[in-house]
């Protein structure tokens, strides 16, 4: 193996740490240890200071060995390769490593086979996690241009990122990504072909999450059903030609890893839990408790590293000092390639970086339920083991060449700083072996098998015609099928519909039939007749796929499918029966609860019994929750709005708020689900209903025209707006009749419909926190977050709160860089820490103040609309009553005209 001499010379020039690097020497032979003090291994071993008040008899510490030990020494990639224990016939080789990449955490391949690497260059650069959120991370892109198996040509596609959460290839020279502590997913594009992103566009919002970097959204993944799923988020998003929509799902309980199998079942990889999650049923149907799905012994890892350097401490240590219970897992893949033994196809793999192993999972299906076990439990082994303590597998992928790739962070510390604090067990062990300064490395490995060389077929999907992409739906490698399907849908090229319909009905390749079915669905060209025929297919797999794909047609108005959902719970295959019941439930077909109860009596299979019982329980819980979800006033608005929408608005906007198809592949009216216009300021929707809207919306023409609804009273308008802002996966503030009356009065002189650009120009826009804002408060809590707490956190997920309970006169103030006409303030105070009563004032100079609004705090979302005099550079919120709780705010928004 070799890199080009030119690249090696450049690498040596940029990384003085690799002191002995020469063009003749493979980079995989260059040891990170050479950048360390050569006397490191010869220095006196450090004595570990133990706090005097530590309870050495506690389960975490009892029996710990703190004898001074030699430091762990990093080695070259070729040396590390010797540490792996593989099953007979398997080989592992490096294809990319430091110094070209540093701290790799995930990889993705685009339609031309180029590998994007997520490099988390700020992660645990010391034992205290200093600079964790510095903008030093990047996404690089790599190619193997000389076809020698090594990715030698790279470019930094996107630089200076704050701990990015994922990378998603999204068409030619385009990716999606999101940074930590952000709520927005952006689309990044290289428009001039130099390999570097130069265009940034908002793609979707509402996917973020704050907190520890290990506990934020990750691995946004486009799956076979044409939706995108991520960890932590209890909703999924989907690109459509009319914009990004969203739907609620169950809680994925994943932390670092989202993968799918050949039939589109999504597997989420838990982190600290150490096990895969939600693999029994699609997460869109919610969470199900499946007793015994992890078979006995599944949680026991078989590690060859015996340092006892893991957070649970001695309580989860075997007698040989190796890990006895999975404690951290990361990265996952259902292998779907064609260049490893066929026994591996469809098998689930994930990394356990604390145990330094790659686990292979075998699954068995019984009466519609899936149970999983370690493939090598009988021999007390794993698919891959390593004796190198620095092997840290964090991602796994089926590659375009048909083999398996493994991302190895190759570092000393893998746990985040919250678990390495002063006095912690883990910090003590890290220091014992001097692992805290082994940083800045990273390798990507290829796993191959004797007699099955990697494929040298080069993907060139961005250069191919759509008809050529259709042929890839028959490819034996699942990566090719997925990427071809995605790119056909992004093109929205319906010239291939005939070929796809032929493939789905007559191909002898079952996987090609599945992909062609979902490609038709993604093009908006799937016919009810097609899915009804497929529901009678001899293959139970095809019957299940037909049921799932048909849900889209039902949502867009094909109600005749309800009869199929009622009939198919009688299918002889429990998995088909379960799918029909789940489809009927999620679509809320008429008398779905009766269907569940009758199926429970007729079908005694374990899977049907479990699903019907838990869905009926969920239905009862939902009825109870509905009574407390909103205030009585909000419940009345929501109920009235739903009645109006179902009987009138759904004709154009779709029964599920997704828009109604015209029959020619377009929509009569735009979708409400996930719409930033609907979830933005409510004035947009109110003015649209009062005066109508014509013309293109964000450049998209619709068949229907939104006529004025002003003949209806204010309560009618308020209920519809409140409903569409809080249904279809949306979450927004309610509006009342008084607010509608105010806007009706202000716009009374208007005699014509709005056009979109005119309307948008006068709607208040949310102001985003900028570096030149000055945010202060009379009191700020430091509890639990150290001295870095800042009032500006009120604008994010972390939130701000007062140090003490509420007192009259407590204030929160924002100084803007210039004077603005302010319209509204919105913030979330959670369940208890809302301000009892408060005023909102503005000022031009920060000295003379004018009160422009007031409010009484409520649980959750608080909104106060400001009067017409709310013009200023300073905004202050001030409490007016004493309260028992502190005052908290997060996800704050200030709207201005």
UniProtKB/TrEMBL annotation:
Superkingdom as given in the UniProt entry: Bacteria
InterPro entries: 6-blade_b-propeller_TolB-like (IPR011042), ARM-like (IPR011989), ARM-type_fold (IPR016024), Cyt_c-like_dom (IPR009056), Cyt_c-like_dom_sf (IPR036909), DUF7133 (IPR055557), FA58C (IPR000421), Galactose-bd-like_sf (IPR008979)
Cytochrome c domain segment(s): 636-728
PROSITE patterns linked: CYTC (PS51007), FA58C_3 (PS50022), PROKAR_LIPOPROTEIN (PS51257)
Keyword Iron tagged: yes
Keywords (A to Z) from UniProt: Heme, Iron, Metal-binding, Signal
NADP is among the record's keywords: no
Record's protein name: Glucose/arabinose dehydrogenase
Domain F5/8 type C: 761-897
Annotated Pfam families: Cytochrom_C (PF00034), DUF7133 (PF23500), F5_F8_type_C (PF00754)
Stretch forming the signal peptide: 1-19
């Amino acid at each position: 193996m070799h890199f080009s001499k030119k690249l090696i010379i450049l690498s040596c020039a940029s990384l003085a740490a690799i002191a002995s690097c020469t063009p003749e020497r493979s980079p995989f032979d260059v040891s990170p240890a050479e950048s360390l003090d050569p006397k490191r291994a010869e220095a006196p071993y450090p004595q570990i200071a133990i706090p005097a008040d530590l309870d050495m008899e506690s389960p975490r510490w009892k029996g710990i060995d703190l004898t001074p030990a030699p430091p762990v020494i990093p080695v070259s990639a070729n040396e590390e390769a010797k540490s792996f224990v593989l099953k007979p016939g398997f080989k592992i080789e490096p294809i990319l490593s430091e110094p070209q990449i540093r701290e790799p955490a995930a990889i993705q391949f685009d339609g031309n086979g180029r590998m994007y690497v997520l490099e988390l260059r700020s992660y645990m650069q010391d034992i205290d996690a200093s600079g964790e959120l510095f903008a030093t991370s990047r996404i690089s892109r790599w190619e193997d241009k000389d076809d020698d198996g090594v990715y030698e040509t790279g470019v930094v596609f996107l630089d200076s990122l704050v701990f990015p959460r994922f990378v998603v290839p999204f068409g030619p020279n385009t990716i999606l990504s999101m940074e930590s502590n952000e709520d927005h997913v952006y689309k990044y594009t290289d428009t001039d072909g130099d390999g570097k992103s130069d265009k940034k566009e908002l793609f979707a919002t509402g996917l973020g999450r704050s907190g520890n970097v290990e506990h934020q959204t990750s691995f946004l993944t486009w799956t076979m059903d044409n939706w995108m799923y991520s960890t932590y988020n209890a909703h999924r998003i989907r690109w459509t030609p009319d914009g990004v929509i969203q739907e609620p799902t169950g809680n994925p309980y994943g932390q670092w890893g989202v993968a799918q199998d050949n039939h589109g079942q999504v597997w989420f990889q838990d982190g600290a839990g150490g096990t895969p999650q939600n693999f029994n049923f699609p997460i869109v149907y919610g969470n199900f408790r499946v007793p015994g799905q992890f078979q006995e012994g599944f949680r026991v890892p078989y590690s060859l590293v015996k340092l006892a350097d893991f957070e649970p401490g001695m309580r989860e240590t075997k007698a040989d000092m190796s890990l006895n219970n999975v404690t951290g897992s990361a990265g996952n893949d259902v292998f779907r390639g064609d260049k490893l033994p066929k026994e591996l196809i469809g098998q689930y793999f994930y990394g356990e970086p604390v145990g330094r192993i790659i686990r292979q999972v075998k699954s068995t299906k019984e009466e519609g339920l899936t149970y999983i076990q370690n493939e090598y439990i009988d021999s007390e082994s794993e698919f891959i083991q390593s004796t190198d303590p620095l092997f840290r597998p964090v991602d796994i992928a089926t590659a375009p060449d048909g083999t398996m790739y493994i991302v190895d962070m190759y570092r000393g510390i893998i746990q985040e700083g919250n678990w390495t604090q002063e006095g912690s067990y883990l910090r003590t062990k890290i220091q014992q072996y001097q692992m805290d300064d082994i940083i800045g490395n990273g390798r990507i490995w290829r796993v191959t098998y004797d007699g099955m060389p990697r494929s040298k077929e080069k993907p060139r999907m961005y250069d191919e015609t759509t008809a050529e992409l259709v042929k890839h739906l028959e490819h034996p490698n699942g990566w090719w099928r997925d990427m071809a399907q995605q790119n056909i849908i992004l093109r929205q090229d319906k010239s291939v519909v005939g070929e796809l319909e032929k493939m789905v009905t007559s191909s002898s390749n079952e996987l090609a039939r599945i992909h062609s079915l979902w490609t038709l669905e993604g093009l908006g060209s799937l016919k009810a007749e097609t899915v009804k025929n497929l529901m009678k297919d001899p293959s139970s797999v095809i019957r299940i796929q037909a049921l799932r794909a048909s849900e889209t047609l039902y949502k867009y108005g094909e109600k005749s499918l309800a009869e199929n959902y009622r009939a198919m719970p009688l299918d002889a295959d429990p998995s088909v029966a379960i799918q029909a019941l789940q489809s009927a439930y999620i679509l809320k077909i008429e008398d779905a609860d009766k269907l569940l109860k009758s199926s429970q009596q007729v079908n005694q299979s374990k899977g049907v019994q479990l699903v019907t019982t838990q869905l009926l329980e969920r239905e009862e819980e939902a009825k109870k929750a509905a009574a407390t979800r909103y205030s009585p006033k909000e419940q009345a608005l929501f109920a009235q709005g739903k009645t109006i929408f179902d009987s009138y608005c759904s004709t154009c906007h779709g029964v599920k708020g997704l828009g109604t198809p015209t029959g020619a592949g377009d929509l009569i009216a735009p979708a409400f689900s996930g719409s930033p216009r609907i979830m933005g300021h409510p004035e947009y929707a109110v003015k649209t209903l009062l005066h109508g809207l014509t013309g293109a919306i964000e450049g998209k023409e619709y068949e229907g025209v939104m006529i004025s609804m002003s003949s209806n009273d204010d309560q009618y308008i308020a209920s519809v707006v409140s409903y569409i802002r809080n249904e279809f996966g949306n979450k927004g503030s309610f509006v009342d009749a008084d607010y509608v009356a105010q806007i009706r009065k202000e716009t009374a002189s208007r005699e014509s419909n709005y056009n979109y650009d005119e309307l948008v120009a006068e709607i208040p826009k949310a102001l985003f926190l900028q570096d030149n804002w000055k945010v202060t408060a009379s009191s700020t809590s430091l509890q639990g977050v150290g001295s870095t707490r800042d009032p500006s956190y009120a604008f994010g997920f972390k939130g701000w709160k007062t140090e003490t309970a509420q007192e009259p006169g407590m204030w929160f103030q924002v100084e803007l860089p210039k004077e603005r006409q302010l319209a509204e303030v919105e913030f979330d105070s959670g369940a208890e820490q809302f301000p009892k009563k408060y005023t909102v004032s503005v000022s031009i100079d920060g000295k003379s103040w004018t009160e422009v609004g007031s409010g009484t705090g409520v649980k959750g979302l608080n909104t106060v609309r400001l009067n017409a005099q709310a013009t200023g550079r300073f905004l202050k919120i001030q409490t007016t009553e004493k309260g028992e709780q502190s005052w908290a705010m997060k996800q704050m928004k200030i709207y201005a005209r």
